[in-house]
Amino acid sequence: MLCINSKTKEFEPLKGKAAHNLEKKFEKVLFILVDEYSMVGCNAMSMIQDRIQQAKGFYGEDFGGCFVYLFGDIQQLPPVGDTPVYSYKQLSSERLRGKLIYNNFQGAVFLTKIQRQKDASFQEVLNNVGEGNIAMKDYKILKSRFTTTVSRMERDKFKDAVHLYATRSSKGTIDDAEGLYPVLYLAEKCTIMLKQNIWTDVGLVNGAIGEIVHILYEDNWSPPEDRPVAIICRFRSFNGPFLDNELKTVPLVPVSKS
């Protein structure tokens, strides 16, 4: 929505059509809700500020005068590759600015009734983990769910689950080819999701949802032996030049990863 690439080293204002589309998108926006804000770091907060101020054309107040509400639990996952807003370690100028923006938030509402987790013992484990006060009894509860402890039938329930690792070096080969499937089944009219940023300024970003319109092959090429030369798709978030203005399509070409 904000066309932000958190990995970029040079964060600049949008220009041309991208800037115009951003302004139109926020023309009637007054309230902004940010969920899971523990994962929004200082640098990201600074970039969000810049984008919304540009969208509203007003730089005199935080977020262009919009009312911004943060939702989440600050004891949950911290941001990836960014500095948490509660950190006091030495910060770059951009990250310091993001922390100052965060410090400007006023008022807080605490929700004290847990809705999703009914197991009292597991609730206590989660609270202790969040506060950094893990006891031996907490460890024993977690250990009871180790893959080496549960039955084969129980393990099979999680065979397609997402694997989380603390470091790149510990992930082994589970993430080879950057998570690409060795075989991917596609069809016209099926829904797809981008797994990486392609063209952030016009909305082709990681997580964008689209629909396949056509699958194109070279002459004398055909599935499943040959891969397509391009997949013609339609994305609601795309605001760049279309391949077909009537169908509002954009081509995607295959990439190889190892």
Can you tell me about this structure?
With 258 residues, the protein is α+β, with helices and mostly antiparallel strands. It has three domains: 16-103, no CATH class; 120-161, no CATH class; 178-258, no CATH class. 24% of the residues lie in helices and 11% in strands. The strands form two sheets. It has a four-stranded antiparallel beta sheet with strand order 3-4-5-6, with no helix packed on it. α2 (42-56) links the parallel β1 (31-34) and β2. α2 (42-56) crosses α3 (93-103) and α4 (120-131) crosses α5 (136-143). The longest helix has 15 residues, at 42-56.
Record field, number of beta strands? 6
Number of domains: 3
List the secondary-structure elements in sequence, H or E. Answer: HEHEHHHHEEEE
Mean of residue pLDDT values: 86
- Characterize the largest beta sheet: strand count, sense, and whether it forms a barrel: 4 strands, antiparallel
H/I helix tally: 6
Largest sheet, order of strands side by side?
3-4-5-6
Low-confidence stretches: none
Shape: flat
EC number: 5.6.2.3
Family: Belongs to the helicase family.
Catalytic activity: ATP + H2O = ADP + phosphate + H(+)
Protein name: ATP-dependent DNA helicase
